[in-house]
Amino acid sequence: MLEVNEIHTYYGNSHVLRGVSLQVKPGSVTSLLGRNGAGKTTTVLSVMGYLKPRSGSIVYGGKAIAGLPSHRISRMGLGFVPQERGVFPSLSVEENLTVAARPGRDSRWTLPRIYELFPRLKERRRNRGFQLSGGEQQLVSIARALMLNPTVIVLDEPSEGLAPLIVDEIVEILHKMKSEGIAILLIEQNLSAALDLADMHYVLSKGEVCFSGTSETLRNSERVLSDHLSV
Ligand SMILES: Nc1ncnc2c1ncn2[C@@H]1O[C@H](COP(=O)(O)OP(=O)(O)OP(=O)(O)O)[C@@H](O)[C@H]1O
Ligand SMILES: [Mg+2]
């Protein structure tokens, strides 16, 4: 459903992605792993239209999307939860959730359903963005992506810098999203969470994919774990 084929992405003259390919299958969870600076964020920014690869292709639902404006890509059904979360500090939780939503006839993710999945956000719906903890901001960012009824959701390190309890809450929510049939592309430093959630893993090193395989294969790949994931 989402296919990245041999993309090369640059920042100015700096050649960062060197032929990255990966696939996200319908309803599955795919993880993207690798050390700091390996190129994970650059890969998802390329997918979401914030960076344009110089070569290679990105195909989603049969359409070439590389270089399309990001708002068009998200309307096609690709949701994005960026590494910096992007919660509007002066808006309430509820305003953050509804500001970008475009409810349609078949919109599955209404506010009441979101509040069912995120009871903590219901409690805090009148609080403003700046009053939320880091974990609550992450929940807002995930819930806001869901409000656009995505078929694939891309999350860039959702558990980064958060306490274990809220990380468990986020992992639980990702499991529920998966059971609703939403495909997930997950960047994650927390290897055990990634092994638990994902069906397929890609490991990046210096802008190249150095491993791809199932959780079982990754668990048994001691060299990949020690060289590229600091395990
Ligand atoms: N705006 C930028 N301009 C120039 N170089 C950049 C820019 N953003 C990232 N880079 C470089 O591109 C490489 C890949 O960065 P990227 O942010 O994709 O890594 P990452 O795998 O997401 O790392 P992290 O785990 O720290 O988030 C790094 O060498 C980084 O220094
Ligand atoms: Mg990153």
TrEMBL record:
Keywords: Amino-acid transport, ATP-binding, Cell inner membrane, Cell membrane, Membrane, Nucleotide-binding, Transport
Ranges of residues in domain ABC transporter: 2-231
Entry-linked SMART domains: AAA (SM00382)
Transmembrane segments: none
Entries under SUPFAM superfamilies matching the protein: P-loop containing nucleoside triphosphate hydrolases
Alphabetized Pfam families for the sequence: ABC_tran
Any one biological process term the GO annotation gives: L-amino acid transport
InterPro entries: AAA+_ATPase, ABC_transporter-like_ATP-bd, ABC_transporter-like_CS, BCAA_Transport_ATP-bd_LivF, P-loop_NTPase
Chain segments annotated as coiled-coil in the UniProt record: none
PANTHER family from the UniProt entry: ABC TRANSPORTER ATP-BINDING PROTEIN, HIGH-AFFINITY BRANCHED-CHAIN AMINO ACID TRANSPORT ATP-BINDING PROTEIN LIVF
Protein family: Belongs to the ABC transporter superfamily.
Protein name in the entry: High-affinity branched-chain amino acid transport ATP-binding protein LivF
The organism of origin for this protein: Paraburkholderia ultramafica
Organism ancestry: Bacteria, Pseudomonadati, Pseudomonadota, Betaproteobacteria, Burkholderiales
